[in-house]
Amino acid sequence: MNCAEAREGLSAALDGALGAEELRAVEAHAASCAECRRVRDELADVRRLLRGVDDADDVPGRTAAIGRGVLAAIAHPPPTEADLDRSRAERSGIARRMVWTLVGGVVAAVLLSVIVGTALTIWWVRHWSGLRAANPPGASGPAAPAPRSRGRLIVSAKDRGVRDQALALFKDWSGDIRVDQADTDNRLFSLTVDFRGQSDEVERLKRRLSDLHDANASVLMRWEFSITSD
Amino acid sequence: MSEYAPGNETVPLDWASESDEAQMLRVQAGDTRALELLIQRWSPRLAGLFYRLTGDPHAGEDLLQETFLRVWSARASFQREARFSPWLHAIARNLAADRLRSRERKPLHRALSTAGPAGATTTLLGKIPDSATTPFAAASRLELLARLDEALRGVPEPYREAVVLCDLQRLSYEDAAQVLGVPAKTVSSRLARGREHLRTALAACRSGPLP
Lengths: 230, 211
Ligand SMILES: [Zn+2]
Fold this sequence. Notes:
The complex is a heterodimer of chains A (230) and B (211).
Chain A: H1 3-14, H2 20-32, H3 34-52, H4 62-75, H5 81-134, E1 148-157, H6 160-169, E2 174-181, E3 189-198, H7 202-215, E4 220-229
Antiparallel strand pairs in A: 1-3, 1-4, 2-3
Chain B: H1 20-28, H2 32-54, H3 60-73, H4 84-102, H5 108-113, H6 122-125, H7 141-154, H8 157-168, H9 173-180, H10 184-202
Helix pairs in contact in B: 1-2, 2-3, 2-4, 3-4, 4-9, 7-10, 8-10, 9-10
C-alpha cells in the first residue's frame, strides 16, 4: 500500500469504518511511514474539531414562525399552473353565460329576497321569544370549578433522562409543550412546559420538581419554574 | 400558550418523549400537530445544515419552510420501518443543492464568500463548547472557528457535503449515502478528501509539532 492509498483509509479508520483486513494494511503502512502517521494525527484533530462544533442555529421565534408558515401553506395551498389555466378557461366561458343569466337573475333575486326576508323575520321572532322562555334571567350556571393553577417550567440539560423525568411529573396535568433537541446525539435539549391543573396538586408537583432539580443539578444548564393559582 | 405552539395547536405532553418516527407516522395520518413537533425539533439543526451547504446565513428561513412543506406533501413516501433523520436530510440536501444550482451563474466560491452581510456568520462561530480541547493551541478558539468556517467554504461541493453530513451533522456513512444517493464507499472517499482539504487549510493554525 502506498501513501495515496493509505490516506483514504486513514480517514475511514477514524470513523471505525474499515474492515479488519483493510485496517491492518493501513496500520502496517502507517507504522512504516512517518508522514502518514503525521497526517493521521492531523486528520484526527480536524475530525475532533468539526465534531466539537455545535452547528444548531436556534434563532428565537424562528421555529414558531416557520411552523405558522408551513401550517398556513398546508391549509391554503397556492394554486398550481393547472389550477390557474382551468380557472382562466372557466372565467371566459362564465363571462358569456353571465350576461344572459343576469337579467333573469335580477328578477329572481327580487322575488327570492321578499320570500326569504319574510320567512327570516318570522323565524327570528319565534327563535328569540323561545330562547328567553327557556333560559330565564337569574338561572344559575354549572357548579363553580375547583381552584386551578398554571405555570411554566423551562429546563435545559445535557441529559435526555432529565427530560423524560420532567415530563413524567406532568402526567396528570394538561398543557402545551415545546422541546428542542440541539445535538445529534439527542442529549442536549431544552424543554418548555406550560401546564394547567388542580391547585391541590401543586405542593406535590413542587416537591417532586425540587427533588428532580437537586438530583440533576450537575447537568442542568437552565432551570426556571413559576406557578400561579387562580 | 400560543407563543410556544407555532400553529396555536396543543401538542399532548407525552408526545414529546416519543421518537421522530412515531411523529412521522402521525404526520402520515394527517396530524399537523406532529408536524409542528418535528419542526420544533429539527429547525435549529437544519438551519445549521443549510448555512453550511449554501454558505448563506439567510438561506435558512425559506429553505426550512420548503423542507417541512415537502415533508408534508411527500409524507406518503415515508416508509413505516424507515428512519426519519436520513429521510429528512435527503429532502433538505436536495433543496440546498437546487438553491446552489440556481445561483450557478456566479462562481460557487464567490457566491459563498459574498453571501450575507459581513459578520453574519459569527452567529455560528462562537458555538464550539469552551471545554472542547484541540491541539490547535496557538490559535484562539474564535480564530480557529473563523478559519474552519472559511476553510469549509473552500472545499469543493461534493466533499463539503460529505463533511457537513458526516462530521457536522454526525450522520453515519450509511445514512449519508442514503441522503446523497451514492454508495457508502463513495461517502468514505469524499469525506476523506474533504477532511484533507481542511487539514491543509488549517495547518497554518498549528502551534508546532504534535506531542
Ligand atoms: Zn505514507
